[in-house]
Amino acid sequence: xxxxxxxxxxxIILLCCLSVQAQxxxxxxxxxxxxxxxxxxxxxxxRFVNPAGGFLYRRNFDERVSFRFNxxxxxxxxxxxxxxxxxxxxxxxxxxxxxxxxxxxxxxxFLPYTAAPGSTTGERxxxxxxxxxGFGVFHFNPSANYNxxxxxxxxxxxxxxxxxxYPELKKYKRTSSAWLLGGGFKYRISALTGLTLEFGVRxxxxxxxxxxxxxxxxxxxxxxxxxxxxxxxxxxxxxVLAEPIGxxxxxxxxxxxxxxxxxxxxxxxxxxxxxxxxxxx
Length: 281
Known about the structure:
The chain has helices at about 1-20, 85-90, 220-235; strands spanning about 25-35, 50-60, 65-80, 95-110, 125-140, 145, 150, 175-190, 195-205, 260-270. It is mainly β and about 280 residues long.
């Protein structure tokens, strides 16, 4: 009887102490912006910033190390007409795309952050700069305008992808992966509420986020297989020049470097209210 009572008591204590771990779980939202870097935004121009946001769950292992799961969304775009060089201005390419991302990341706080409210709270622990690294999967679907209509570019095959004359060129996938690198700043404004400022670059595994990667396809083939729309979207320079610049086989994009995008913003988190354990552990 005494043995069963001890087992039951130990189980109650264990459950109680596991409940304490709930205080290490944060849930939150963030709002901010998204920017794209690639064949159309070749520098670090931030004129192409669009809204972004998401939901997060954070597991604080201790005051230094955390694991975070993200569901993010944003919109990226760019247009050659805003470039500061003549080649891009006459190339006249442009795109926009929504991004839906699911990702995880590990965070390291440079200062011991008050991840567990009520345990070690002190003024020096209320804030912490941090770095983060992780991995994610995202969906994108670039589009452009043609005669006032929004046209999805992947089905068009603007560089000859999917046409029998270019059997080596397959339609690119609109779901890809990315490595996350970045950092930020955390500040706990109350026992259960925190603010986060963060930026995170996504180093993607695709060069088609902007639908630009390889060389110009033969405009006659594009016209024959896809009609005037495919021919124009493959080389829209005819809109700004009398003679199109897209000679067959000429470089249209840089296929050496993949495209990247950036999420940045401010978030607010709520820490699950802890349950007090009557027995120290």
